[in-house]
């Protein structure tokens, strides 16, 4: 007990050990940050205000855009400070808060993607009953439920982390505060935290992934039973964007949290996390706009209305 120290701050090692490239990395992540904020704001705005996009699918896409805006902002601004000032110190309370918001938004997005898969199943397999099955009340209930579940899932991790003592230094082997690097610094018993990470977080990732696969399996079975090549083509055209996002999200999440502990690698974790938190949120609006005719049409209408108002 005498060797335990009260940690008031942590030191993040940063996104890269190559300090000569910090200027280039800052420019790269600044471009990604601008692209993320602008792209997701456009998607959120057009799904919120365009009357042609007031459907359940675009309601969930709008939720996803808001998640990606805040998700990126959870880790990248602190990374900017480290790249500019070479000071990667973060107060204890801010570290726990960063961990909380990272897992809150990440788990909410995982559950939201599963809901979006279920929505596509209802729209394709039950088109006549779809407006009744996916009513306005149900989609709001589903959205509130996944946000609430994500909040309490992350709150559980934050509470359990705040109960630990830290005596193995304060240098976090990551560029942001995540659960596993913090547990490595603790001198308390951490088996409960690790069990929660594997059991609860792992169940969310695998459970949502399984539900998404089931939804698309039922979609494919229904379309194949129609013996319509055109129907199959339209189905994959409609669902291709969502499947791309699902593959990126669950693939990265699984690589981060479902690998055996003995195979953990600092460089691998940092590379996967950069893809997971910085690159994927930027790709989501591109995927949904470039592959979606309705969103592109809504953007053209918005640009047309803006041009007309300026001429007036």
Automatic annotation (TrEMBL):
GO cellular component, one term: plasma membrane
Domain of life: Eukaryota
Domain G-protein coupled receptors family 1 profile stretches: 39-288
InterPro entries the record matches: GPCR_Rhodpsn, GPCR_Rhodpsn_7TM, Olfact_rcpt, Olfactory_GPCR
Keyword annotations from UniProtKB, A to Z: Cell membrane, G-protein coupled receptor, Membrane, Olfaction, Receptor, Sensory transduction, Transducer, Transmembrane, Transmembrane helix
Membrane topology: Multi-pass membrane protein
One Pfam short name: 7tm_4
Record localization: Cell membrane
TM helices/strands, residue ranges: 21-49, 55-72, 92-118, 138-160, 204-224, 236-258, 270-290
Single annotated GO MF: G protein-coupled receptor activity
UniProt family annotation: Belongs to the G-protein coupled receptor 1 family.
Protein's recorded name: Olfactory receptor
Native organism taxonomy: Eukaryota, Metazoa, Chordata, Craniata, Vertebrata
